[in-house]
């Protein structure tokens, strides 16, 4: 345990930096660390699922861990995941509702970022039945939702507010 005085000092310092940083709103918060077994990138935490699963089950696995199936919002985020967890994984992106209309969401937020593989061109709805997407080093590919792929779950890093 940290001495109480040190903790109070650190919190005060954080408050001071926040409040003198020129922010219009003087909001104080300390970014917490990710739970054990989760890795941190910015203010997000990530964890790989225990086994390869079909897409819908991958989504459920993340919900069970109070998180969501990952949906990278940039190449930087993808690079971090591939370097630190696994090179190929499901993303929360599907065209199950309307063929060819891809819905990609980070939690409930629509994500505009796309990184479909260029060569061979994806998404190709191969065999007429590819409605879920995996990411790997070559970009995204649509595959059958029944395909078994690794899962990465994502959740916000805990924030302590004052
Ligand atoms: Ca499709
Ligand atoms: Ca495909």
Structural overview:
- By secondary structure, the protein is α+β, with helices and mostly antiparallel strands.
- The protein has two domains: 1-31, no CATH class; 33-161, Mannose-Binding Protein A, Chain A (Roll), CATH 3.10.100.10.
- The protein contains three helices and eleven strands.
- The strands form three sheets. The protein has a five-stranded antiparallel sheet with strand order 7-6-5-8-9, covered by helices on one side. It has a four-stranded antiparallel sheet with strand order 2-3-10-4, sandwiched between helices.
- A hairpin with a 2-residue loop joins strand 2 and strand 3.
- Residues 12-26 have low confidence and may be disordered.
- One calcium ion is lined by residues 122-124, 126, 130, 141-143.
- Pfam families: Lectin_C.
List keywords for this structure.
162 residues; alpha+beta; Mannose-Binding Protein A, Chain A; 2 domains; four-stranded antiparallel beta sheet
User: Which CATH-level-2 architecture of the largest domain?
Assistant: Roll
Strand segment tally: 11
Report the helical percentage: 10-25%
What small molecules does the structure contain? calcium ion
Radius of gyration: 19 Å
On the 0 to 100 scale, the average pLDDT is 88
CATH class of the largest domain: Alpha Beta
**Series of H and E elements:** HEEEHEHEEEEEEE
What is the rounded distance between the termini? Answer: 20 Å
- What percent strand? 25-35%
**Total domains:** 2
- Treating each run of at least 4 consecutive H or I residues as one helix, how many helices? 3
| Strand-pairing-aware structural class | alpha+beta
What composes the largest sheet?
Answer: 5 strands, antiparallel
């Amino acid at each position: 345990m940290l001495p109480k005085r040190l903790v109070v000092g650190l919190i005060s310092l954080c408050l001071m930096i926040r409040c003198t940083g020129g922010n219009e709103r003087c909001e104080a918060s300390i970014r917490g660390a990710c739970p054990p077994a989760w890795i941190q990138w910015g203010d997000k935490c990530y964890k790989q699922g225990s086994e390869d699963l079909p897409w819908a089950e991958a989504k459920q696995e993340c919900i069970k861990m109070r998180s969501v199936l990952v949906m990278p919002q940039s190449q930087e985020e993808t690079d971090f995941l591939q370097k630190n967890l696994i090179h190929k994984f499901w993303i929360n992106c599907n065209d199950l509702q309307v063929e060819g209309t891809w819905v990609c969401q980070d939690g409930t937020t629509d994500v505009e970022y796309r990184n479909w593989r260029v060569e061979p061109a994806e998404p190709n709805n191969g065999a007429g039945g590819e409605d879920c997407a995996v990411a790997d080093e070559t970009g995204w590919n649509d595959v059958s939702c029944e395909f078994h792929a690794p899962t990465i779950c994502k959740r916000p890093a805990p924030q302590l507010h004052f």
